[in-house]
Amino acid sequence: MTKYELPELPYDYAALEPHISGKIMELHHDKHHQAYVSGANAALEKLAEAREKNDFAQINLWEKNLSFNLGGHYNHSVFWTNLSPEGGEAEGDLLEQIQADFGSVDALKAQFTAAALGIQGSGWAVLAWDTLGGRLITYQMYDQANQLPVAVIPVLMLDMWEHAFYLDYQNVKGDYVKAFWHIVSWANVADRLKKAKENYSGIIA
Ligand code: MN
């Protein structure tokens, strides 16, 4: 069985300072993300065992564990590459799509920030390509997978779990989100939007 693997960070732990500390990045990647990868692999193994024994008594547990841990693996894999020390600006097709769907980059940032700060408990703020409507939307994801509509493709994700910011910002989430905007790799967001449009358009209707 193919195992999920922890991807390397595309930069050094301290590369995003002063916006996100090297200490957080090391813990977040090496411990938290690794735990999701291990959890997803464990859930798949348990499901394989259940099939071998034809005993699905614990199916709800393993399905929940797979969803949660695979969600964590997906989300962090997107999040790391959404960030870069260089930051940048939205341009080209990404800029046009943002203007069409939100009016302006500033309006998108205001909506995304409000969604991020409004999350109750642990979750993610997400900018995603809606393959059905052909538009960018924002949404709040609870835990690692809840409130995820089918066939929307995340292009920008912000981790709003306390482990993502508490060492640097304590309870001041607003400063964490402000710092995030300095290190968004808009080139990565643009690349993700291009791939989503090319590869996923029309998969629902
Ligand atoms: Mn996290």
Can you write the helix and strand succession as a string? HHHHEEEHHH
* Basic shape: globular
What's the average pLDDT? Answer: 96
Give me the count of strands: 3
Q: Give the names of the bound compounds.
A: manganese (II) ion
Uncertain regions spanning at least 5 consecutive residues: none
The residue fraction in helices comes out at 40-55%
How many helices does DSSP assign? 7
Structure overview:
- The structure is a single chain.
- Helix content is 54%, strand content 12%.
- The chain is mainly alpha-helical and 205 residues long.
- Strands 2-1-3 form a three-stranded antiparallel sheet.
- Strand 1 and strand 2 form a beta hairpin.
- Helix 1 (22-53) packs antiparallel against helix 2 and helix 4 packs antiparallel against helix 6.
- The structure holds manganese (II) ion (MN).
- Residues 28, 32, 76, 159, 161, 163-164 line the site of manganese (II) ion (MN).
